[in-house]
Amino acid sequence: MYTELPGAAVRLSRGLLAGLLCVLLPALASEVVVTGRIVDENGAAVGGARITFKKAGDSASQDVLADPTGAFNVRLPAPGAYSVTAAQTGFFPLKEYSIQVTEGPQEVHLVLNHIREVFQSVNVETSVSPIDFDRTTSERTLDKLQIMNVPYPSTHDLRNAIKLIPGVVQDASGGLHFDGSAENQVLYTLDGFNISDPLTGRFSARLSVEAVRSLEYSSGRFSPEFGKGSAGALAIQTETGDDQWRYSATNFVPGIDTLKGIHIGAWTPRFNVSGPLKKGRAWISDNMDGEFSELLIPDAPSGQDRSSTWRGDNLLHTQFNPTPSNLLYADFLINGTSSSNLGLSALDPISTTTDQRLRTWFYSLKDQIYLGRGAMLELGFGENRTFLRQIPQGHDFYVMTPAGRRGNYFIDSAQKSRRDQFLANLIPPAFHFAGSHQFKSGIDLDRLNYWQDIRRTGFEQLDLSGRLLRLTTFAGNGRFSRPSLEASSYLLDDWRPRPNVLLELGVRQDWDELVRRTVLSPRLSFSYAPFGSKNTKIAGGYAVVHDATSLQLFTRPMDQYSVSTNYNPDGAVASGPSLTIFTIQNPHLTVPRYQNWTLGFERQLPRKFDLRLNWLRKRSHDGFTYINSLGSNSLVLPQPLAGYDASLAGVFNLTNQRRDLYDSAQAILHQSLREQYEWMASYTRSRAYSNAVLDITIDQPMLISSNVGPMPWDSPNRFLSWGYLPTPRKNWALAYLLEVRDGFPFSIVNQQGQVIGGVNASRLPMYFNLNLHLERRFRLGSYHFALRGGFNNATNHKNPTVVNNTLGSPQFLTYYGSEGRHFVFRLRWLGKD
Q1: pLDDT of residue 702
Q2: Are residues 341 and 455 in the same domain?
Q3: Are 108 and 160 found together in one domain?
Q4: CB of 766 within 8 A of CB of 741?
Q5: 128 inside domain
Q6: Which pLDDT value is given to residue 439?
Q7: Residues 169/715, Cβ–Cβ less than 8 Å
Q8: Is 630 within the bounds of a domain?
Q9: Which residues pair with 82 in a beta bridge?
């Protein structure tokens, strides 16, 4: 049953419909679809770039985001003249590029150029807002200009530049610690390939700072594409040549140091060349880095106070585009290091030091294939090999006294490691279902191998009167090899249910031959721009992450074991000889895991200020640690020791009893100024604790009853600021670095090497360091140069790195190692017009 409308109503409804069509049809007919792709100067996709279209004479604009292959699609209201602006971090922005949009489908091709140094003082804006609304990860980045401009100590060493990242501290030995982690809890990649040491997991490769385009550190809520590092991933992106030949050189004149008199302290020449092998098709970038450095120990006697190092490395990076949709990349890195008197300090004379020889070889090949419709396939293979030789000054026993060490170091070693890596990543076309979805998946297969030949002599511990308290020697065979296999895969979905909301949902799978368990790592993160704001972002997430299983940890039972004898003050044997061995009793160990909770707030303020607030909570479960299980009823001695008639001092069994925790709250304020000038300030409040603070090995002489306390790199309060600032004089700049933090913790031990009180219960004095440098850029003919000079530790603050921690020693709690104020300079040839 239905009711027929009156004729007048029918005529009225038809009129309204006709009027509506008269309004809508012309608008729909005039709408124009513009597709395109945004790439860099060599044709590689600039994924995630934001492109803004603005019609001439109209204040309204339309934004679109490029997908991972650089493709984009936008609907414009009508044909006409438009200006296009495109921006992405690490590139010079494309500003108000004029295009004429006609009726019908139209394609636009945009190019962004990577940031490079600007010679002249011209108003070139080299960065965009660091607030990226289309990323959910917690990422902290250093670009090439920051690495080159900030005056950190030893500016030729990339490791020293990494500590410019808020949340990264560097200990006295040069070790890097990201968000409270050990150095081997981070995945280090070079152009997408794992570059960490195959044995230790640390970042031991060296490459020229000029070779680096950017350092990108992702932590907490990072993508499931990256695993094998509970503290996150550090991606090292290298420079690629373009269609212009470029040359530069740095420190080709030896440096002068004023520490303990005027002398040649370091010579770190670096030479760089890049350009086209074939314009528009193939490019090359080669970066050579050399170093001669001499470390002076202020508190050591003259003639016994120097340690020298020779280093050299070369990174060759090439790109070849057989077609616009097929891009081939190749890297080849070689390192060589020769050091003498390594380990020299105020408490460690030359006789106790070692000479070291280190070699590293790395190469990789990668093919990026663009399949159309926004799809891309990436295939790659890389190989990393290392060789380390450690040579003591002699083969006398190593002697530890309350006043320091003497004799010869007790380890003579040769070690080799290798990693072969195959990776594949696939980005299928995006699709729409309750919003837009962009999937990504991939696999990573690694084959590792480790070989060592280590021979140890022994060490003695003496009391204040020089009497022998403990004698330790070593037995067994320190020569062996151990392979391993790792297999990983991941699946990721970037889901945008609303224009101002982005969800990243993913899972990662890992398996390795050492533990033989498959583990899954679910991860969820979000990015939210409240009320559609263009200058505010809230992001957070939850992630389960795993560390790479350490070959070094699992080969400990295959190594030598120690034999110790304790003596009374009258020289009589108090106990021993007794053995300390390492074993793996449990064949079904669990893979350690971390649970990370993160929350962040970002706000772009007036006058190009950017504020970031970050909170991070990490908790580990089932971590690997060796626990003394002597007396356990289930203990089974290794077969070679089953009939040994000596007593047992310790049987350290690998367990899942380690627990770590890290909490931090961080504030970062950054301001971009004109040209290449900027400054940053950050404050981090944190704590890093563990129940396995000290790594128990046969080379560890300290005796520990409780291993619970702050980590050796724990620094509860840290303020970091750096900048490159303009001066009233043209072509002059002021560069500075300021770091203020709590001193690192250390333990108190008695004459027997027993830890007194809690592990790391004491701290070094507060660390305060201010570096002030003045730089002048000038021109000689068609060549450009930059000359820099200034003072490191300008306030001459005492920043000790070593302490006499032996209770009862006349030098107890005497601090050593402060370098004091010293003058350094740098000369760079920046190239020619």
Answers
A1: 65
A2: yes
A3: no
A4: yes
A5: no
A6: 96
A7: yes
A8: yes
A9: 55, 99
Neighbour tally for 468: CB within 10 Å: 16
pLDDT band at 644 (very low <50, low <70, confident <90, very high): low
Give the span between the Cα atoms of 615 and 611, in whole angstroms. 14
Kindly state the tokens that stand for 423.
């990776």
Instruction: Give the residue numbers spanning the domain of 157.
Output: 139-832
Q: Rounded to an integer, what distance in angstroms lies between the CA atom of residue 191 and that of residue 240?
A: 11
Pairing of strands 187-190, 233-238: parallel
Query: What mean pLDDT is predicted for residues 579-588?
Result: 89
Query: Is 81 a member of any domain?
Result: yes
Closest alpha carbon to 333 in 275, 282, 383: 383
Residue 402 zone, left/alpha/beta (φ > 0; ψ -120 to 50; rest):
alpha
Report angle CA 242, 135, 660 to the nearest 5 degrees.
110
Sort residue 232 into left (φ over 0), alpha (ψ -120 to 50) or beta. left
Closest CA to 188 of 233, 221, 152, 140: 233
Integer-rounded Cα radius of gyration of the chain: 30
Could you give the CA distance from residue 65 to residue 46 in angstroms, rounded to a whole number? 10
Q: Check if the beta carbon of residue 270 is closer than 8 Å to that of residue 156.
A: yes
Residues 6+ apart with CB under 8 A from 441: 425, 426, 489, 490, 491, 492
CATH number at residue 584: 2.40.170.20
Rounded CA-CA distance 683/720 in Å is 6
Is pLDDT at 739 greater than 70 in this prediction? yes
- Which whole-number Å values give the CA distances from 33 to 29, 74, 98, 101, 431, in the listed order? 11, 6, 17, 9, 18
CA–CA distance, 492 with 38 (Å, rounded to integer): 23
Average pLDDT for 608-632: 89
| List of residues 6+ apart from 766 with CB closer than 8 A | 740, 741, 742, 743
> How far is residue 130's CA from residue 146's CA, in Å, rounded to a whole number?
14
Number of domains in the chain: 2
d(C-alpha 803, C-alpha 812), whole Å: 8
Give the tokens for residue 215: 């350092």
Q: Does 187 lie in the same domain as 77?
A: no
Lowest-pLDDT range of 178-192, 520-534, 768-782? 520-534
Strand-strand pairing, 106-112 and 32-40: parallel
For residue 49, the SS3 value is: coil
Cα–Cα distance, 548 to 486 (Å, whole number): 9
